[in-house]
């Protein structure tokens, strides 16, 4: 009886793995870089939300990080200075068209008056989700910010 039960269980496991029990590509890879929860600066979101820009996490190959380190590692050629970048993120959150989906707010500002003169606009994406690993009770905040319409 034990042998046949074991055989049945093994065939069930084999069938499960054959039809998709293994890890799927939709399961996101983990970014191995450390996360730095310190806050670089703070913005106010379009609805009055607390939106910190954290030092964050650098990109790792095809896996995005978030925050200042992600912006530097993923969009570095676009940053003239962090003084300008902070002003333009603030302006995008304040004056851009914003929409929320899947826990993330995306603000898009179409403008040809940005400090990065080759850009047609800027996008800033943030989340109000609080991550207990930050130990400060504040949202994760800015995920990314980047220029578009510039071939950048």
Structure in a nutshell:
This protein has 152 residues and is of the alpha+beta class.
Topology:
Elements: H1 2-21, E1 36-44, E2 50-56, H2 67-75, H3 82-95, E3 97-101, E4 104-110, E5 121-130, E6 139-148
Antiparallel strand pairs: 1-2, 3-4, 4-5, 5-6
Give the % helix. 25-40%
Helix-strand pattern: HEEHHEEEE
Q: Mean pLDDT, as a whole number?
A: 82
Biggest sheet: strand arrangement = 3-4-5-6
**Please, how many domains?**
1
Keywords:
two-stranded antiparallel ribbon; disordered N terminus; alpha+beta; 3 helices; globular; 4-stranded antiparallel sheet; 152 residues
Describe the structure.
The protein has 152 residues and is of the alpha+beta class. It has one domain (27-148). Helices cover 28% and strands 32% of the residues. It contains three helices and six strands. It has helices spanning 2-21, 67-75, 82-95; strands at residues 36-44, 50-56, 97-101, 104-110, 121-130, 139-148. The strands form two sheets. It has a four-stranded antiparallel sheet with strand order 3-4-5-6. A two-stranded antiparallel sheet has the order 1-2. Strand 1 (36-44) and strand 2 form a beta hairpin. The longest helix is centred in the first third of the chain and has 20 residues, at 2-21. It is globular. The N and C termini lie far apart (67 Å).
